[in-house]
Amino acid sequence: MPLLDIRNLTVAFDTSIGLFKAVDGIDISVDAREVLAIVGESGSGKSVAMLAVMGLLPATATVTADAMTFEGRDLLAMSPGERRAIIGKDIAMIFQEPVASLNPCFTVGFQIEEVLREHLGLTGRASRQRAIELLTDVGIPDPAERLGAYPHQMSGGQCQRVMIAIAIACNPKLLIADEPTTALDVTIQKQILDLLVRLQAEHGMALIMITHDMGVVAETADRVIVQYKGHKMEEADVLSLFERPKSRYTKALLAALPENAVGDRLPTVGDFRFEDELGGAR
Length: 282
Prior knowledge:
By secondary structure, the protein is of the alpha/beta class. About 40% of the residues lie in helices and about 25% in strands. Keywords: ATP-binding, Cell membrane, Membrane, Nucleotide-binding, Transport.
C-alpha cells in the first residue's frame, strides 16, 4: 500500500468568470522512503495538488477525489482536528518563499518550538534542546544563539534551513518540498538540495519534490510525474523519463534544457502545441 495515495484529484476555484480547474483528475502516489518529483511549468497545478493534501487551500477551492489516503486513512473524511494531528507531524511541507513563510514577529526558536509543543508536547529545556539539535542538523552555525534571531536577521538560505528544521521537527513520514531552491543563488541551491537528500536518507522519509527544474529531478528523484495544465502527462522512473520520454510535453521540457540550445536560440515549451495530447490525457 502506498504511503500517500491520491486517485482522480480535482481542485476547482470559484472565480468571477466561473469554476477554474487548477487540477483536473490526476493520480499521485508515493511509497515510504521514495523520492517523487512532480515537474512542470508554472501554473501546471503542482503546488495546488499538494496544498490540497495539506488542507491549506482557501475556501473558494473545491477539492474532490475518489481517494486521498495517508497510511490507508482517508484524509478527506477526517475531522479538522484529526487532520491537524497529522499535518505538521506525519506530513510536513516546505514552502516556496522561506522568508514569507516564517512569521516576522517571532524568533526562529519560538517558531520551531511551537511545532514541538503542539505535536510532541515538549516544553521548557527539552523543547529548547531539541530546537538546537534541529538547527545543528540543518547546518545553522551557532544554533543556540540563532534561536533568538528573527527571520529578517537571517539570509534567504538560512531561512530555508529554518523552514526545513520546522518541517522535520517531528520526524515526518512524508516531506513535501515546494520549489525549495526558489530565489536562492546557485551555490545555496546545491547546498539545500544536498541537505534535503541527506535528511531524506537519514530519517527514512518519503519526499515529494515539486519543481520546474529538470536538473533537480535528475539529481534527486526515483520517480517522476510530469504535469501540464492540471493534467498528468507522464509518469516514469527517472532514468526512463530522461532516456525514453513518451509524452510530447516531456520531450518539449527536455528539449528546452540550456544544453540543447541551437546557436543563440533556446527551444521553449511554447514552440509546441499539446491540445491533442492533452485531450487524450483527459
